[in-house]
Amino acid sequence: MTPLALLCAAAATAALGGAACGSSAPSPFPSAGGAGGAGGEGGAGGAGGEQAPADPTLGGPCVDDDQCEDGFPCTFDACDTNAGRCRFTPDDSACQNDVYCDGVERCNPRLGCVPGEPIACGDGSTCTIDACDEATRTCSSAPRDADLDGDPDAHCGGDDCDDADPTASSLQPEICGNDRDDDCDGRTDESGCVSPEHDTCADALEISAPGSYAMNTAGAGFHYASSCGLPRPMSTHDVVAAVLLPPGPPVDVQVTARTEGTDVAVTLAGQCGDAATELACGRPHPSADGGKLAKLRGRGLGDPERATALPVYVTTAEGAPVVVDVAFLPPSPAPENETCGTAAPLEPGAPVLATILDAARDLGTACETDLGELVYTFELTEPSDVDLYAVSTDGDGEPSLSLRSEGCALPEDELTCQTAAAPHLFRRALPAGVYAVAVSATAPTSVLVTLELAPPTDPPPDEGCAEAAPLAPNRTVAVSLLGHQDDVDLGCGPPSVDAAYALDLEVASDVLLVERLSAGDSGSIALSAPACGGADDRLACGEGDVSPLRSARRGVPPGSYRVVAEAQLGQPVSVTAFVRPAAPPTLVPFADACEGALEIPETGGFFQGNTTNAAADFDAGCDRAGTQDRGARDQLLKLTLTARRRVVLDMAGSGYETLLSVRRGPACPGTEMPLSCTIGTDPQRSFLDLVLDPGVYYVQIDGHAMAHGLWFLDVRVVDPVDEVDP
Hints:
about 0% helix; 1 helix
């Protein structure tokens, strides 16, 4: 007999009346009133009754929170004492991967994070090309333009009469004498047609003196290949200049071609039409003024006994005006300090000019550009503070500096780097030894590099993670960043000057970090484990050039953490760590009008809703999209303050372009207040930081330009501070 059978037999013998195992006799135990029951987990028992639908957020029995852990980081786990069961509240915000086009991820209490539905951008029209644009986090819908000439097909309302030929469109000039309708006006070779100048070597623009020359590729063909050729040759145009050098000693010829925005390339050859005689070429790069430029330098050209004519091909991606600058310079060899092994000396206080033009790319750097680099070296005989400065002498590109250890060549040899209009690298108390400096740029340019040394100084108290200064929760501190260096690399934004603070949490907390940047600066704000050892220690990250920057982490366990604020230019910032005990998100299923407005506790909270099924009830003054009356679909929340408070509202992570408006009551929906309405077209979505007097306020969750969808709203209510703390 099995142990179970023996147990049943013993129970039957001892039981009054000889009841057997499996008897339908009632249980001798009184009902617990809420937990368990014949219905099973999440069900309702009772003979003959229908079983209630299982609640996916309910787990097993519990008496305290420590007994509830489902292993899914996206759920808020707690003991629901009313039900006597664990409650696993899903938090969709914890699942977001910050990729817009793959949709909004959701938290399933039985499965954890699950993928969202990809953003559907198709409008059903064959006359549009629809796509999801990750950079702008919007759907783009462009008129059909098969030949990519910028003019939509005439069959779809455009003016392109031949959408298979990029040289024919309403944007092209009519070319004389070719017996075709170039400008799609229904006529050929009509009055006002143009004959392109300098289209071939036979009609080259002669340049015998340095200066600026205007050329135009509109209507020109494409005749000359080069190693700097542009893609899409069907729509490429080129014109030709002839650089004339008189007999005499050799010179360097530098040629720069500039456009207002179209890609441009420039090539210098020895013989017109012979690609094998190419001497130098320059590819397109973005210029500092928003246009495009290409630059080359031909070295040691000319003949002592006879005149020389050198063809220059100027190529553009589409017909456009081009300004060609030509300079005759003293002959100079290509720089020899291409690598760490051939680095040139850099002396303190003695600026050097680095011409970033035809150098090869040899070194790995976190500040990589499209161009190569030149390398310099210096030696410290004693510990010193080191400042490195760079500036472009012609403004064509932004310089890039990389300070490296003596090993120099490997990516891990880089100590710090920066790419900016005027980069400045600072390193405190650098030990005695040999160091290298790599110099590059975002576009061909000449860079003046200066090294300055000073006696070593002590670090400020907020310099590094090891001995970080304390950061009081819910208080804003001003950070000067003066005398700071780039100490921390969490993989949050490009290398930048940083400051670190210690944030101590006594209980599990929801943390929202806010950093305000100086005008024109960019940076990042991150939450990290105390070691700040790299991306593995990073818990939250917000980066960019749209101030204020935010990053958040919900349900952070008790302990000590680091808040790292960075600014690329080292300009002053302010930092706030908003902290509150961890709490589950509040679902906003309705709240579609005044009578259903959801009440926000005066302590704030985290809210999640979806406007897709809501009505468009309210206008908003900051909706600048020119949409129809009442704009997009909206939901409404209500906040009642009994005292003057600082109220921060953050919609980061929302799945569409949000609009957020705070209106003053008591009558609903309230009246709009100054600076209390904002749209969120950037990836971090809408954000408001307000100081509000006691009273009733209505929070309008809306969409910009008729947008709607899943939204998140983090509401922080703290004591107001008239000025930032020192």
